[in-house]
Amino acid sequence: MTLAVGNKTVSIHHLLSNQLTQLGIDPQQTPTAEQWAKLVSAVSETYKRSENINKGLQANADTLSTRVETQLLPGTDNRDLLGTVFETMGDGLCTLNKEGQLLLMNPVAEKMLGWNQNDMGGEYILDAIYPFGSGPLSPTQRLFLKLQREPELDFPEAIFRSSSGHILNVSFSLTAITHRGKFAGAVLVFRDISAILQTQVELSNKLEETLFLNTIIETLTSTLEINKILETLCSELCTHLNLPHAAFALVEKPTNKMKIVAEYIADDGPSALGEIITVNDTDIKEKVFNTHKTLYVSGKPAEEDADLREFNLHRGTISLMIIPVVVRGRVVGTLGLNADQPRHFDESDVDLVQKIAAVAGRALEHAILYKNLKRELLQKEKAQKDLVIARDEAQYANEFKSELLAKVSHELRTPLSSIVGFSEMLDMGVYGKLDGDQGEVMEQILRASEYLVLLVNDLLDISRLEMGKLVLAHNEFKVQNLIDRIERDMRRTALKKGLNLSVSVDPNMPRTLIGDIDRLNQVLNNLIGNAIKYTEQGKVEVNFKMENRRNWSMTIKDTGIGIPYEIQEKIFDHFHQGVLENFEHSRHGFGLGLAIVKQLTQLMKGEITVDSAPGKGSSFKVRLPFEQPPIPVAADVHASAETRAMI
Amino acid sequence: MTHMPDNYEKVTPHAIIVEDEESLSTIFRKAINMAGYSVEVFANGKDALERLEDLTPQLLLLDLHLPLVKGDEIIDTIRKNPAFDKTRIILATADARFGSHIESKADLVLIKPIRFSTLKRLATRLNPLTLN
Questions:
Q1: A646: contact with B, CB 8 A cutoff
Q2: What is the phi-psi region of residue A88: left when phi exceeds 0, alpha when psi lies from -120 to 50, beta otherwise?
Q3: Relative orientation angle of helices A590-603 and A517-533, to the nearest 10 degrees
Q4: N or C terminus of chain A with fewer C-beta within 10 Å?
Q5: What domains are there in chain A, each with its CATH number?
Q6: Cis amide linkage into residue A301, ω under 30° from 0
Q7: Are B116 and A471 in contact (CB < 8 Å)?
Q8: In chain A, which among 452-471 make CB contacts under 8 A with chain B?
Q9: ipTM over 0.85
């Protein structure tokens, strides 16, 4: 069984195993292997024991044969010794003469057979205790005839009959006694093997049970549909115990009622599948729930048993067993076995059924774990999908925004060209000299137009920076050219406000640098423009410095109003509302310019920092990586670059 | 040189402006005129190309996005003809994204909005009479 997760196919067993292992539960149901090992060792032990018994019997027989031989020898009296052997032997022992008549039997033999020496002396004891077989010969005749051909007869498993007629499971051997080459009699040594046989039967049952559990566990691991598993358990149980009906009922939440979810019905019995049982309604179930113990009612007519009445109404149940199904210490359901005839459930039945219920409990636990796992996986999958969708949407929205900015910026340029062009023509007197206030108005229009151009350019820059479409030039330029541009672009603005604009260059600063002079100029213009804008009196200082071997910097310092501490970190965010709302002087678009400066600085692999004290002034520092120009050559500023900067 | 007057170096230089936006062509015409050129204006690339078969201007001011024939196509066409070797080309575009891409094709690339004074100054600088 596999579960498709995304485009991957993952084995559920694998997933489940992992999950179970993580939870400290062994998913492989190792008890099976253990049971097997125990069983195999027990069986092998039994065989060894049987072998030992036979060997022991043989040894005893051999010893006695020698003793008896000695006893029969003339002139030798070993009666005392023999008596001791007789007394101390753990096995039953009889000595027979050559006709098969009993000579002696030891106390063990007397006890086991229920005969005593006095009663049986001279009797054909084998005919009495081993009265089996057919044909004209008696048991004694048959065995003695055989014994004369084979000096030793072994019967590992045989049945003797006691004086009271009880059957004894024995292992016996019959050994011939020869005297001077002639057959003189026999020694019979036997041992009660009832206990061993019992063990063997038990082992055989155990084996059967283990095989049965094994089948069930195999079913468990091959399918995870819980109802199917429970159904299999019911069916196997009924077959195994020869019952007509078995059913699993599980507690349903939130009603706390039980529902029959799986069953097995022999023949055409009525189905109880889907039936709802209120736990309180049936005392027997309630007992099972409260005690966690198996309850079974055997062989009583239903009328006499209050617990059974309810069930009897449905299906004529006579014998019943209700076993709790426990998951993590809680009864989650019951396994019920019903018989329509008096049925005795012995201990091994109960034991087996309880094991099955335990298996069912584990199966349920697995199923619950699996269900949870599956739900978790689905949730995870959904969350991932949602994230991807959200990300795509955000990306799309961002791309759309950037595209829109670029488009708007582009579309604004043509009408702006007209406004700027005509304004300037009027201002320059191309269409005649302006009178009175007309010149001042014209200048206002021009300033507004220039600001508009700046905004349009900023919009385009932001969109290109965000789309990653802004490519920096990588050219050698003279630092002096950058300074000249500052003078050209900003000097007049500073002077208009009565501010002193000074530019200083650190003596260690190289004369040439590598980079994008236009973009550096843009960064400087933005920062110097801001400094002038927010400074009413005092000065604006620009300093170029070689920080160390790897970095150079541009610092723009003013004696202006400074930046409130709470917004110092936010001033580089474009469109930051907080900045625009709180910073009273920012009505001329503080946000975009600094955002572009920051992004350009980052694109140049540099960084910008601000140090400002409200009321005292601000200092912006742009640190940039230094790249050594290959060979100092005369700078040739491309005309186009220059003109672009002038616009 | 067949289209050129013999006294090419001495007479008023000629400029051709190709710009579909009328208000802009008005500004361009005035700026270039004030820079000492005689000026002809065409509103689409096709008309301009036809005129360029008969005449070799000293200055060609083109918009990039033009109806019928695009500005860069006009440049490609005349650059193949050695007769235009001395023609200075100014490309005006509102599309800043293409600025660097076509920079190499023109002598100057101006990104709109173009200041009147800037255009006048540049055109003056490119005027052969002024240069001499």
A1: yes
A2: alpha
A3: 150
A4: N
A5: 46-199 (3.30.450.20), 471-646 (3.30.565.10)
A6: no
A7: no
A8: 453, 457, 460, 464, 469, 471
A9: no
